[in-house]
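Sequence in, structure out.
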Amino acid sequence: MIRTKLEGGVLEIELCREPLNEIGTEMLGALEKVDLGGARAVVLHSSLRQGFCAGADLRELYHAGKGMKPAERRKGVREFLGRIHAFLNRLDEAPVPTVAAVHGAVFGGGLELALACDLIVADRSTRFAFPELRLGLVPGFGGIPRLKRDVPNSLVRDLLFTGRSINAEKALQAGLVSQVVAEGQALRAARATAAQMAKFDPATAAAAKRFVKPFPRAELEKEMELFLELFERPVVQDALRKFVEDKGPMPYLP
């Protein structure tokens, strides 16, 4: 699911779950075990050619809930969301600076994962999207509050209401990413950035991060409740069924 290495004070977290790093219970379990201790900076990246992350494992979500009563299904989804929120909050509030090196697809929960990092370095192949409204849902991993923290609300509405993707250049202009590099060069650039970050006093870096990066706790909780409220509607269950039955190689593409 993932690989990690700590070198020169920089912890690298490599996502490597085929087909596109979908976040289900196994992937989440692997992420929860990541120890940030000893790191002075963190780089999160994908070694898969197709992209960074396609988001939640919707097939697992659908099959896990089949045959369950609505109350049981809601409880299971709430437990999973609680775990993913806890991990992303830990990453978001980590006392060390964090960089997401992204390429290709950065969709749904994948965008939410990148948004929990302090900086996003993107190569020119990158596409960012929140396609959840296609399923009758809103992002559920904390994406809306974190996106609102970083970019104008007009872009939040555009991504959310249309389900369309934007490219790396538009993301740079909006302030979503800090750097755009040539195709295949995001990890190299992120490593260089992390190495620079790791040179500074850790206590000072942690204090600076707390000062410049507000944590939207109340909004994160509201988003999770809205996701759960929408999840049990028949339109969502029908959309999930159609997604699971889609035989295309990438049914999540906007």
